[in-house]
Here is the input.
Amino acid sequence: MEDACNIFYQMEERDTISWNSMISSYSHNIFYEESLRCFNQMRHATVKPNSVTLSSLVSACSFIEYLKWGMGIHGLAVKVRLDSVFYVGSTLITLYSECGKSEDTELLFQEMPEKDLVSWNSMIACYAEDENYQGVLRLLSELSRTSKIINHITFAYALAACASPATLIHGKTLHALIIRASLHDNLLLGNALVTMYGKCGTMRVAKLVFQAMPKPDVVTWKALIGGYIENKEPGEAIKTLKLMRAQGTIADFITMVNILGACLTPNDLLKYGMLIHAYTILTGLEMDNYLRISLLTMIGVGSIQLIWRACCYC
Here is the structure.
């Protein structure tokens, strides 16, 4: 960024494109406040912003939750008649959603004269964030009646809204729509489905989805293990962990800690905890303080001698 700044401020004349490049660079490099300051300088230089300028600025406001700034930029977009541009509208939807303004988000979406798929996805993501699965399914139904092709991103956002047994029927509906759209082999959706069925307490179906996936990745394995953990099935989580290692994929320390957390009785803790301890040694997994504490707590159920052995390995 330092080199970019030097080049930019040495320019004798700066047009909208050069200002946009600078604002966008700040935003992409997580210097959100700097991007807003840069916009202030642009305004003082009497350079007109365009849709790219406003989109970058609204995105920056979404990340730092500068709602007042975002609302001001929204007002400017309306004033210069750029609020109807697809990607400006989509970033505004994300802004209001991130700041917890669900009603404003919905109103903005409804007032958009034309909506592209990004706009639809942004609104579906907003409903999913609020766990409004009725709204998610309603939008999916409306979207299916347009000429736009629903993609895997749309379904991934929708599945995120189904995260409890009460929403299982809606998750199954989405699963059926995914199969109908021939997207069932998509890795992102496979991972989302395994996660969804796990959160809904249907591990049998989660495992079937997992087994049907052409090439599960480390996220898929962690989703299945996470489902077993969430449903208090440490034995199945350990079996999956062993199978995961046999397939050449190594779990991280967070997975280990979570499995130990699923052990509800001293017997379970000692039985599965010893296997976790052995796994970390065999795989050379880097020890984290949380994992050390979890292992020492687990071994404390057994004997002082085992605690001493664990300390030697940790």
In short: Residues 1-99 form a domain with the Serine Threonine Protein Phosphatase 5, Tetratricopeptide repeat fold (CATH 1.25.40). The mean pLDDT is 83. DSSP finds 19 helices and no strands in the chain.
